[in-house]
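Think of the structure tokens as a kind of shorthand, similar to the way a musician reads notation: each symbol stands for something richer, in this case the local conformation of the backbone. In the example below we present two proteins back to back. Begin with the first one, reading the sequence and then the tokens, and try to describe in your own words what changes along the chain.
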Amino acid sequence: MATESCPILLFFQILALFHAKTTSRETRIFLTIFYTILAIFTLTIALVYKEMIFDVRTTLGAILDIIQLALPIATELIALTESFRKRPILGRIWQKFSEIQEHLEAIPGYSGDIFAKIHRRFLIKFLLFNGGATFIEIFILIRLREDYPWLRHRSAAFLPSLFSRSLIFLYILHVDILGGLSKQITEILQEISKGQKILPEDRKTIKICWKIHRELWLCETFLRKVFALSILGIIASYSILLTVDFYWNFKAFFRASTNYVLESSLCSTPFLLTLLPLVFTGEACKKRQKRIFVEILAIAPKSATMASFGLFLRNFTLSGLHRSTGIGAWEFLNVDLRLLSEIFQTIGIYLTIFIQFEITYYTMYSSSYVYVSQ
């Protein structure tokens, strides 16, 4: 069996069986750190054996190198096709944003353009993270101009990586807008809840906020239809590239198998610079949307009689039940700690498989193996 030559792989597989049952935030953080450290530790030990995986001058290395470059490119073609096909849905999202802007302007005392503030914050985030990732990739290409095989490899991945980041940041822009609007509604409701009595104009404001909240839910639904397949495919292909980058990083540091140690260590940085804003944007948006429910429930008992409050509570419950029908897809679409932990778990498993290949190959063919410098 495969696990006989590498028992640590069986350990990973057993952990994977119980991983889906973990629910606490602390447990997910611990597992993410644990998987990463364990993968680093096992890979470091295995580096003393040999160098074969992803060396294009060997059959296995050439196959794996083609696969890990072909998957991101194929993913980009699928994402491009999906984005083009779903353009009308994306237009409906912006139509809903325009309607929300009109609703906000109807609220008494509302002033300011929330969309302008959101766009300014997003522009800073885009230039900082996406610009930084692009600069690092260009820097690597410049440094590798004298090493044609590696230059060809990184050049083939440059455009797919750039398109992936652009699509992910387009998604982040929409999530930023949803989160910013949710925060604005929460602040309006908090001002109303501070009063001892609900005034007639406050009732109008509450109704408008509830309409906006329903529009936001529709935007979430449309957002899933446009970006779900593309984002998940990009994350999967990025994970494969990150696995390979981790592999070469540790080889560069511990075995000095390349003259480009700095470039090897920077290979995985663009993915991390893309993942960070994606994680924190999704987490912040979900927290702000939950606050809307809390504030509305705090205001509702002050607004009218028990009969009308009962009607409101029934509608609220039905709306919440309606939202729950798509919560699985939406939760999975958001790159939260659960998905992040699963990504690193998968990377750890693949790294362990690579180690198993190297150990097995070295054990069987060590007498005839000739070292090939990278």
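Once you have a description of the first chain, move to the second and do the same.
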Amino acid sequence: MSDIGGYAWDYNYFFDTNHTVYSQWRGWQWVRTQLLLALPHLIMDHRYGSQYDGPWSWVTLNGYTSALLADENPETYPILYPSLHTDKIAANFMLPGNFELRLEHFASMESIPGFIGHQSERFSADGGLPWQDHDIRDFDLMGFPYSLLANVASSGCNLIHTMIGARDLQEYYLLPERTLQLWTYWLQWTDKHLEEIRNSIPFSNEHNWSLMKLNGIDGFLFLFNPNYIQEHRMIRLDGQLNIKSSTRRGYWLLSEIYPEQKYLQLIEYNQTLDFLLDGQSATVFELSFISTVSKPIVVGVSGTAFVANKNILMINGVYGEAGTQTIHPIFVIMPDEQMIETVVLNGKEKIFQQVKDLIILIDALSFPGQYLPRSAQIINNSIIVSDLLLQQFIERQQEYPIPWTDDELNEVAWLGPHRLLLFICIINPDDRWNVTAQINNITVAVHKGYNTRDTHNRDRFMGFYLDLTNIVEKPNIEYSLSLEMPTLDPGLFQGLFLENIERILVEA
């Protein structure tokens, strides 16, 4: 007996001139059932064709149905939302399929397939094999977290990896430690939160997923914004999200756990919350009920607190996005109603009031600097970047020092994540258009991005973008951008957006 752990198959179709739809289905059900009876420990990877069998067939899956509900190669699936990141394109194609499986086909989470990362294209334009001949480096460093979290939310029982940067040794060995830690953390997170994953359900649309415990009080919200424009998403905490009203005494708290970790505010059942989601972002929130407070809890900002000299409350490690101000009340939940005389935050004394066990700061906090969120939008064709953003790109190159080739940098938008790119975001762009650009009256190259490395098919065209890395080199200086483009129908042009930005955090 071999120690094989699973079976995989593709296209469960027998070419028989006397076949019927029922005979095809019934025959394959027999094959799967016999496998399951003989080897019940096997995990089966069911590929193309399985998605048409329906939920009653999946009782015998002992695995998951076909990933993406379609072919998995980037040459074949559409770009539903404009993006320069192939992992985000794949994730945004996967999410509607998993939404359909969960709500329309009543699939259990054990049957829903994941699709982490992306597959490289099957063939090059000349018929060669990309993974052998060229175009070997293909890992989407900046798009990967979005893809990983989309899989945790919508297919957390089957985290199928379609891309591991391992064909190129430099790409493999130089993968940043931060990325490995993120990857490991969320894989381990799924092991610890199977109850929530099994209860995962999309609400409103495929970009909102609620993962609640059976108690309906503790759980998580995974929110995805596939568009480049920031979005205010209004969400009501009610039964549609598998949330229940709590009758327990204590504090019901909302916190952000990705990309930052901080308690945000107190919440209650049926409350409508306003979530500001950055462009092309994944954000994870936790709902947790705390009945016993053993140490001070900081709410409204990041940071930790402790009591010094019996009556001085020290709050340290408070950071926020540069150029923003806190929008939620800032307070500290104390273990008891201990009297506090002084509050010191990041070394500065603050005005406060005490209401029983709550220490409430009177003033909002401001975080200095220029506001540049993830996928920052350019207004009035004026580009201004901060020294902190330029430093972010320098540090990313240092932690991911791959010697990129000119072809990789000129032809692949998702490689070279140390670059400052500007995306000309257009719905359904056409690569035949003539688009030209100038910065400070100097002509700059306009690149064409495709969701494939070598085969430049118009249906896989991402859009036009500029590489500003060696152009916008000085902070706090205005660079004037001018574009010449075809006349577009209203609503197609979404805006101009800076790419490869992570949150810029500064101390209050």
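Compare your description with these statements about the second chain. The mean pLDDT is 93.
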